[in-house]
Queue: 3 jobs
Job 1
Amino acid sequence: MIFRIGDFSRLCRVTVRTLRYYDEIGLLSPARVDQFTGYRYYSVDQLPKLNRIAMLKGIGLSLDDINRLLHNGMPVDHIRQLLQVKQTEIQERLNQDNGRLRQVERWLDKINKEGVMPTDMYIQRKDVPRLRVISKRETGTYEYTPNKLREELLQQINRPENQACVRVTGPVMMLCHDEEYKEKDADIEMAVPISGEISINEPLIKLKILPRCRVISAIYKGPYDASDNAYAQIFEYAEGHNLKLTTPLRELYLNSAEEIPEDELLTEIQCPFHELKS
């Protein structure tokens, strides 16, 4: 059975633009193209291949790797190594999510017992895995620069050529590189964790790996500009446990100010550290 591209799109729940892009990169070409009209036609026999593409894309493989995998251009050892890397990445994300789930459960338990939102944050030390991100770094103010950089990064991700192959894999974050607070000329970097191949047309936006690090972590609830008490508790914890905080500090924005009230915003603060000698 043969379908025009629009009908095939509805059948497999993949956008026409994505099907055209898959054809452009040689991942999934139409069964037939009308030489007079240019209409693309797809066969029902192509559904299993499209399903395999969706499955492999769903576990975070790039379209280039999927292309080589499906066209038998990748050795078995390379396939095994690729899947093992993805297995590790997924396990690390699950560990992070389980940690956040335990945090939420502790809060709910305290709310159920006391009837109020906990005022003291749960502070913990944890390992943060390496993260593949796109980022942009510049000097400016905390009132203006983070939102500006965030929008530029999201615009890059949402470019048409990136929509089919790039996935955001974690919350937007800010990295503060200064040793002290600065009202002006603060050294600010915004980053978005991603998977997949991305096309970047802005020279100051970088694709990079944030290294693994050991951090003091706390989840703060409330407006972004009222986190002084949260940082104070982290600094007090570090001093009490003989830990030296280092840079860059990270703030991970776990929900969006565009969707919920300020008082409901959740921010995970991550402060890298090393232990001082006794």
Note: Helices lie at 5-12, 16-24, 47-58, 63-70, 76-114, 145-157, 160-163, 228-240.
Job 2
Amino acid sequence: MREVIEKNVTVILPTCNRYQTARLVAAQKLIPKLTVVEISGVGSYNIPGWRAPEADRLPFVETLFRDKTFGEIKSAILRQKLHAHLSERKANIDSLAVLGWGNREALCGLAWAVQHQVPSITFSDSHALFRVRPHYKEWPKKRIVALFSSALVAGQSHRAYMEMLGMPSDRIFDGYNVVDNDYFAQGAEAMRADAPARRQACGLSRPCFLVPARFIWQKNLPRLVEAYARYHTLCKRYENPSAIWDLALMGDGPLGPEIDGLIERYHLQEHIHRLGFAKYDELPLYYGISSALILPSISETWGLVVNEAMACGLPVLVSNRCGCAADLVKDGVNGFTFDPFNVEEMAKCMAKLSSLDADGLSSMASASRKTINQWGPERFTDGLLSATRKALDEGPRENSFTQNLLLRLLLRK
């Protein structure tokens, strides 16, 4: 049985979105003195439903700027108000956790912790494959990361990157990137009770690959459309046109016109469907009427949509540049991974999956559920418990003149 921590744990977040709220509600059961300092009570992004409506009803959430989006808050004002708020509560802060290490709210929180000798924890989903980083940019990161007492990371590749930045392995714990598995599983199952009618209402007449993604270059959607066209050719070449699934793009963004142009160029208007942006409350519907998920990103810290799809019992096709791939995707068991720059490989993965019989697809669906059952809010809770205990045992880290100077310089940005 997991032991309750009776220490005062404070977590700083830009906004209590639906994902963070599910994690912290679970964690608060074993950390009863947990407090969340939320910067913005409106949301980090101008996306309806991004901030969790239940955040206003949670007694452990304290909001600094109730009516301003995160982007509207000037850095100097943020720093002043956050430091004043933390200082007022200093007697009730035994450890302080922040999201990341390079953004302004993380740096503000870390600077306060360093000044007041409070052990600090970083939540991190950065990994080495996310983007190419020049060596000169890694040097200051190492100095900043050295100021944290422990870390709660997303998975294997994120642990490796944290170790590369100098954090000892015994101070790193995983479980940060999880979702409310029950919410997605139960919602998708409810939708499947009337799947044919719901699929038809969405303009889908065949099984489909679902792609939940913003239409930006990192998501690699133009190359996916090319791969999907190649997939059509492969299925027809092997005289298996009945195995062709449709492609459902759920999202929107600046690359919309380019994607529409490619769909028209390859004459795929009957097979590629634009579903538009979906709110959090609508996601189980789309997972429930889909046959598999594809995430073709060339740059992705994790990919929470993979968690969501697996909780809903879907096989998954995931780019090997996604942070979740190493932890969640088992090739040939619950899906396949692929090189997002290789159109042919992407097309063959689609063909392999869609050509499986009902038993094969059912086996992959079960494997997805079994794997993701180990990656729910309970895993986040265990990770936070371990990271907090370690931070308290380690105590605040020693800091040098160089580190203090670096912090001050970064906070001026």
Note: The CA atoms of residues 254 and 323 lie 24 Å apart.
Job 3
Amino acid sequence: MRASKGLLLAFMLLPLVNISAGAQQRIISLAPHTTELIYALGAGENVLAVSDYSNFPLEASQLPSVASHNGLDFEKIIRLQPDLIVAWQGGNKPQDLARLASLGFKLYYSHPQGPEDISDDLRRLGLVLGQRRRAEKLAQAFTRDLADIKALYHADKKIPVFYYMWSSPLMTIGSKAWVNDLLNICGAQNIFSDAPTPYPEVSVEQVVRRQPQKLIAGMNTSLSDASTFWQGKRDLLAAPLMIVNPDKLHRFSPRLIDGLKQLCRKIHH
């Protein structure tokens, strides 16, 4: 039987509420990073379905997908009858999440705004999953590691860099993008931090005019393939090119620490 509207509203407003803590909850994850959080908290065996691109850990990629950039597969979700749906507020479509709530499903909303918020997300979700002790251990380790990286790469004068996630069209980041904060932690300055949108399209000519000291491709590609795009432009732009793992950097999970360490090392190499 579904929860009453009053209980459902309480759960939506207070994601810290521990519903059936310790029980074998049947779970659906609606984003790659929420999938990673669930597995990190030791509840992976309870996951029924995930979103597209939920490829870590490997076993998650073997599960059926019920979420994509087009939205949710409500028929599959209803058929699976999960006890808990872990959603990405800000990533999943608001109208889809509203429909899930109207159907009576219990929802947990993950909504980190900055790297520091990952620790809080771990604690809140851990409480809901009955994994409070494990969540606290992960959260403390994440907070400690993040502080160490900040201290190691703190710099008053930052290295100007061009970070891009796609080459055709050439898509970079603005000041409101998640990775902009990561670049600042690494002692780098995004050359398009003045962009009015989080993910603007720019031209090679604009990049050349701003003369970054590093080119950073946050893409699942090889250095050789990424270098092909810049061929013929090297007489105007001599900045070295590097590849970083977008799955580790763009997802709000404990793996961010590994991605951030890699990013910082490459910037300062």
Note: The chain is about 40% helix and 15% strand.
